[in-house]
Amino acid sequence: MKFRTVLAIVAGVLPGSLGAVVLFLTIYSWPAISYNGIAFAFHNTWNLGNLYGDPVTIAGVSIQPGAHYGILFLIVGTLLSTLIALVLAVPVGVGAAIFLAEAVSGKLRLWISFCVELLAAIPSVVFGLWGYVVLIPFLAHHVFPLLAGSLGLAIPIFGGQTGSGYGLLTAGVVLSLMVVPLIAATLRDAIVVQPATIREAAMGLGATKFETVWKVVLPNTNKVLVGATFLALGRALGETMAVLMVSGNALNYLPPNIYAPISTMAAFIVSQLDSALQDPTEMAVRSLAEIALVLCIISVIVNALARLMLLAWSPGRRLAG
Amino acid sequence: MSVASMSVGNVSIAAPKVHRMKTSRRLFSILGWAATGFSLALLSLLMLWILSVVAVRGAGAISLSLFTTITQGNGGGLLNAIEGTVVLSFGAMLLAVPFGVGSGIYISEYPHTKWASAIRFLADVLVGVPSIVMGYFGYVTMIDWLGWGFSVAAGSIILAIICLPYICRTTELALQQVPNALREAGYALGASEPRVILRILLPSVLPGVLTGIMLALAVSIGETAPLLYTAGWSNYLWDGRLTHSPIGYLTYAVYTFINEPFASANALAYAAAFLVTGFVLLINIVSRFIFDRGHR
What we know:
The structure holds 2 protein chains of 2 kinds.
Chain A: H1 3-11, H2 13-36, E1 46-47, E2 56-58, E3 61-63, E4 68-69, H3 72-103, H4 106-121, H5 124-154, H6 168-192, H7 196-204, H8 209-217, H9 222-238, H10 241-246, H11 265-276, H12 283-313
Antiparallel strand pairs in A: 1-4, 2-3
Chain B: H1 23-61, E1 71-72, E2 75-76, H2 79-109, H3 114-128, H4 131-145, H5 152-176, H6 180-188, H7 193-204, H8 206-222, H9 225-228, H10 250-257, H11 263-294
Antiparallel strand pairs in B: 1-2
Helix pairs in contact in B: 1-11, 2-3, 2-5, 2-8, 2-10, 3-5, 4-5, 5-8, 6-7, 8-11, 10-11
């Protein structure tokens, strides 16, 4: 066999794995998909039913009596925590990128950039540990009461019970820290490679350095920012351990305010597999597989869009990293 | 994009007669630098906060017995977890390196084929698939259907799939740095395709390839979610079986023992977090140095 054919086959493992993940999750969860139907996404009930009862047959599928699978609360929890993460991470990421690219130079820029990128290398479970041990008590005792007493008076979702610290806002804060290096590093690279001529043109017209960056250089990197934000979105949607440890793992419950406990699709898979395994009809485990499949498809779409956007920004250049 | 089409935007240009800058513009610039500087400072401080918590509490929990005894109930050591992390990561690298480097060579050296562009794109997409989805896939296929039980094989295979795209893309990136003249020289001397690639190109980009492998190793050491339902957990040392035998790993210790109401268990979690973070950061720093040397 030709060398190049061997390499082509070896390289096929990569798309093969992705295909296998989607294929096997679909096959495995198919009974759940057909039983749960579209209501899966719109009902707020995850109930394994009476696990000690005899399975009943509904619509040709064997389930435990009273079992019902609806994950609206997970979809809401995932979307809201991701939204909070991005609302916090995008401005900080943009700010850090600007300062790194324009105000710091030479060796210092390399070192600080490297430190910011190291933040992305810290394992998710360590973020979870920090969130659990340090951030939750800090937010619950100092920040949340303050927020509720000020912003809460004007905006209802910031008001009400501030709870124990486990919840939506805490999950959002931890997630934002995990995705911000992604935004900062990608945008910094994009700012640095902007041609000097446009800076000179703007400065020549009398703009200050910050006006040049903010009004001339930055608008040219809009597409990169959108692409990087999508990458961050994909990461935040699928983040598991850190969210699991700080979100409060709410069940069948929509958060009444920003401090309330939530759960996300990714964290729910981990927290529920043990109990789902108790279901002799396997419908619970297959419904969890359906969650995994939904999460997989969403993240494939989000990441594909992000890469297409970043590619479109650099025609003729292949994207690094 | 040509320079002409770039927006020079809404920069207000000072009228010729007036040479003093408007206070509002001056203020805008000062506030702008303050806000961006604050963002970077905030990020650095949070990073330091996390690292110092892990370092201080972790260092306090480290002792020699951690490395010599296995986990017992809510105390004991981490020898089983350390061994497990080493075994799982080694297994993952054993599988991921040949396939990752091979596919990286393919997409770099035959870049204009449809297959190569598809793989390059899918590698980027695969990086973004949540690791818990990978873990559940492993559970469904290997634990449930193949009946392997929680095992080294299942854990390593899933970690390998997660690591593949990193090795693939860094290998490609490294090979792109090689000037074409080197390839041409090789072929002109009559060397075959495999000889040019394996004996000339690959050795010359070894630091770059190594960087990718080390970063993938760091990823595999830091993963938790994909292992929970593939590798399981064990309080004992590995018995050497690839299937039907669960194995411990450090990240599990962090996740589980921090939730226990016992100081001894929490100490294990801090120590495990310290070891994992230390390894991961060390690998990142060392690989950065290797990468820089390779580019000098």
